Amino acid sequence: MKFGVVVFPGSNCDQDAVDTLELMGQHVVKLWHKDHDLQGSDFIILPGGFSYGDYLRTGAVARFSPIMNEVIAHANRGGYLLGICNGFQILAEARLVPGVLLRNTNQQYICKNVHLAPQSRDALLTAGLDKPAYKIPIAHGEGRYFADADTLKRLNDNGQVLFRYCNEAGEITDAANCNGSVENIAGVTNETKNVFGMMPHPERAADPALGNTDGRLILEQALKAVLV
Amino acid sequence: MEITESPNVGPLPTVETARKLGVLPEEFDRIGQILGRQPNFTELSIFSVMWSEHCSYKNSIVWLKTLPRDSDRMLAKAGEENAGLVDIGDGLACSFKIESHNHPSALEPYQGAATGVGGINRDIFTMGARPIAQLNSLRFGDLNLPKTRRLLRGVVKGIGDYGNAFGIPTVGGELYFDESYNTNPLVNAFSAGIVEVGKVAKATSYGVGNPVFIVGSATGKDGIHGATFASEDISDKSTEKLPAVQVGDPFMEKLLLEATLEIIATGYVIGIQDMGAAGIICSTSEMSAKGEHGMIIDLDKVPMRQPNMQPFEILLSESQERMLVVIEKGKEDVINQIFDKWDLNCAQIGEVTAPGPDGVGRLHFYRHGELVADVPAHDLVLGGGAPQYHREYREPAYIKEFEQFDADDVDDVETDEIADVARHLLSHPNICSRRWVYEQYDSMVGTANRSTNAPSDAAVVRIKTPEVGLSNKSIVITVDCNSRYVNANPRRGAMIAVAEAARNIVCSGGEPLAVTNNLNFGNPYVPEVYWQFVEAVQGMGEACRRFSTPVTGGNVSFYNQSSDDGPVFPTPTIGMLGLMEDPSHQMTLNFKAEGDWIYLLGPPTDDIASSEYLYSYRKVKASPAPLFDFETEWRVQEAIKTMIRHGWIKSAHDVSDGGLFVALAESAMAGNKGFQIDTVDRYRTDAFLFGESQSRVVITVSPDKLHEVEGYFNEGQTFVRLGVVTAADFVINDQTILTSAEAKDLYDNSLGRIMA
């Protein structure tokens, strides 16, 4: 499988995504935002960062980048696409996943380790996860997931919620809801379950040298993809 | 060429105008001698910023030259380049520096702090080094004042918003409160980057006809006379100088970083320097003076944010995220293509000219086709013609008073008072967890922070960039200064700052290599303030010589004083770089397992001087700096290194603010453990638990290593076996002082509760 990591101006987790996938023995290429070529990538990653400075609204400008035409077409063909942090915000702006990301309830940027409870039993990214809680860092100012009641019902009914913020024991509590997301939602997938968005950074928790490899367990699920 | 009065040049200024620009009458005369005529307003403005303290170090350089600057790892000496450059082996070098943004942050905390972060990072990547980690050292006034909370909130958000978007992790720092900083907060930002030896870009300019480019942001009227502003006391008039504060754009900085590293990699760059203080005039003059050439610059070609900018405004503007680049003639297309790729401005504004017959390069600036300034580069810069002064100094009266402190006048703590002091210290803003601050910083971007899940006294960051790949080595970095100690005894206080920085690095598994310093003081024209400066520099120099950690550069910030509050505590912040060659040497501070033995390495004493306990609990403000002895310090640090290499210890945490008790509490809380210890009857209980005498480290040892460790200690170390690690709660002399839950709540949440 070949991974493609899109580099927008202002992306700053692109290299981390590349390093992590290479550490996992994967073939990775960087895709420049002005290009129109996915270079045959099977699995596209929109990395974290502050695309175009995020001065207007997080992800609002990046979705209009030239390469997003090809990324959206890839997703519509059923191709796999994962947005992490700013990448999730871009996916939401592009309506590739439902919902929006608002300012954290404490009005502050938050960077720390949190715990995630995997939810969907049939989405590629979570179906194989069997621990109650995964320790993964977050780093965002606008990560409070929100969707209206109808959308939430659909997400829950269709198994489209990927992760919820939880405590170390895997209990989904208010205290564990680090940014005030509705129903503790940390990540979602689209209806066809080929597009994934999540605020936490699994690529930051993949190298044993950094003392936490829970993120690697999540990213390894992507390798189970059956390509069509 | 003659320069006469004209619409572009304006009327010739008088000595009174000069004074308003911060130029002394004797300096005004000297400018006339250098030019051989009276300067016009543009030229006077040029001299005023270039000869300001901020750019010229005119009141400090005489003493800075006494600091040690050499070791076999030094690749660039202090002042030679934009930042210090240290050989870290494997063909790699670490470029690192600390810089203040105190004055702007006092007025506009958000932008002041943000642009401080931007500026220090440009100093690093202008050398071709990719920044990999940042630290900051922050000092504010009394946290009970709403103004202090506003400043803290703004500064932290400014650092966070800029550093987070720029994408370099903020991995540590310090935060300190004292009422001496009520008007003048201190904001010192540190950055470290990695570059291959031999690929370092220089801040120079030569080669007649080579093109001069300005790249990055357009130039606006922001930050004009910022350098001059930073060179005077803060007063109620200072808010009128708001235009002297710059505005930052981290997105632009990120693009500039990538584009700059790309053009340096082409090998066509002759010289490059970021535009910080004093903008275009500073970079053109410093690069030209260094390369012993001149420049001809057409100011009309500078991309500008607004029309009708005067020549002096263009020259002095401190608009952020800009660089001056001199490249080989004929390679203009290469640089244009790279900047086009990143959608950045890139404008050729002039070219390099030959030096005169006297070997001096001149700078010629044109506006609307007219020569508006003609100045010799050499005479503008530090080490060239910029003035250097010996200032008068005198020991302040309070020093003698502080020395007369007698601990016998202070009651020791009663047994039932220990818990009260413990609560006071764990919740004190100078000691409690900085979580409220550091969670607002991205500390993990770059996947190189080895301290995220392994807490230690200094930050451990592995060496990893797209350019040089992943190394087995890590840099170990810290910023330290207890300014209360420095105020009490500037010489010993500065030595302690160096010693503590080194101790933090050693306790994290690193080897101290070099120092960058940020010397924050009051008005240098006040002899008592200047005495603090002279003493502190001498103490720092002595300590750095003994630790073999040369000073690679840094920053002097004077005039941190106000008409109301007087000078800040003298604050010579030490930024220290260490190296950890072997990842297995990484040492953490958290307690690991129940039953592990807890030791105090280093001598217990009866010293309570200048401790947080004495100062804020006993409210005794006049006392000397804590005890410090270099030989003891060295012996303790060598012991820590030896024990780490033998794998004898499971944790190490230095004893600093709040004394032994706070060190034990921090190690316990970080490991979700407790402790049970006994004090030693020979010593005052308050001194034993809360005193801050130096050269002490809390370590833990598993029971099976006890014989090795005590055998080693008995060969010449002073130590106390304090007790054991327990599952929970803090027990001293068989009394439960605090439960873990209460301690954790006080420690973790006190700052957040005040800031909520």
Automatic annotation (TrEMBL), chain A:
Xref: Gene3D superfamilies: 3.40.50.880
Gene encoding the protein: purQ
Transmembrane segments: none
Protein name per the record: Phosphoribosylformylglycinamidine synthase subunit PurQ
Reactions accelerated catalytically: N(2)-formyl-N(1)-(5-phospho-beta-D-ribosyl)glycinamide + L-glutamine + ATP + H2O = 2-formamido-N(1)-(5-O-phospho-beta-D-ribosyl)acetamidine + L-glutamate + ADP + phosphate + H(+); L-glutamine + H2O = L-glutamate + NH4(+)
Any one GO BP annotation for this protein: 'de novo' IMP biosynthetic process
GO cellular component, one term: cytoplasm
Species name: Fibrisoma montanum
Molecular-function GO terms, alphabetical: ATP binding; glutaminase activity; phosphoribosylformylglycinamidine synthase activity
Active site: 85, 201, 203
TrEMBL record, chain B:
Cellular component terms (Gene Ontology): cytoplasm
Pathway where this protein functions: Purine metabolism; IMP biosynthesis via de novo pathway; 5-amino-1-(5-phospho-D-ribosyl)imidazole from N(2)-formyl-N(1)-(5-phospho-D-ribosyl)glycinamide: step 1/2
A molecular function (GO) term: magnesium ion binding
UniProtKB keywords: ATP-binding, Cytoplasm, Ligase, Magnesium, Metal-binding, Nucleotide-binding, Purine biosynthesis
PurM-like N-terminal domain residues: 81-195, 456-580
Binding site for substrate: 100-103, 122, 246, 318-320, 557
Regions that span the bilayer: none
Localization in the cell: Cytoplasm
Catalytic activity: N(2)-formyl-N(1)-(5-phospho-beta-D-ribosyl)glycinamide + L-glutamine + ATP + H2O = 2-formamido-N(1)-(5-O-phospho-beta-D-ribosyl)acetamidine + L-glutamate + ADP + phosphate + H(+)
PurM-like C-terminal domain boundaries: 208-356, 594-729
EC number(s) stated in the UniProt entry for this protein: 6.3.5.3
Binding-site residues, Mg(2+) 2: 123, 274
Residue runs in coiled coils: none
Domain Phosphoribosylformylglycinamidine synthase linker as annotated: residue spans: 16-58
SUPFAM superfamilies linked: PurM C-terminal domain-like, PurM N-terminal domain-like
Database matches in CDD domains: PurL_repeat1, PurL_repeat2
Matching NCBIfam families: FGAM_synth_II (TIGR01736), PRK01213.1 (NF002290)
Family matches, as HAMAP family: PurL_2
Known partners and oligomeric status: Monomer. Part of the FGAM synthase complex composed of 1 PurL, 1 PurQ and 2 PurS subunits.
Family stated for the protein in its record: Belongs to the FGAMS family.
Function description: Part of the phosphoribosylformylglycinamidine synthase complex involved in the purines biosynthetic pathway. Catalyzes the ATP-dependent conversion of formylglycinamide ribonucleotide (FGAR) and glutamine to yield formylglycinamidine ribonucleotide (FGAM) and glutamate. The FGAM synthase complex is composed of three subunits. PurQ produces an ammonia molecule by converting glutamine to glutamate. PurL transfers the ammonia molecule to FGAR to form FGAM in an ATP-dependent manner.
Protein name: Phosphoribosylformylglycinamidine synthase subunit PurL
Gene from which this protein is expressed: purL
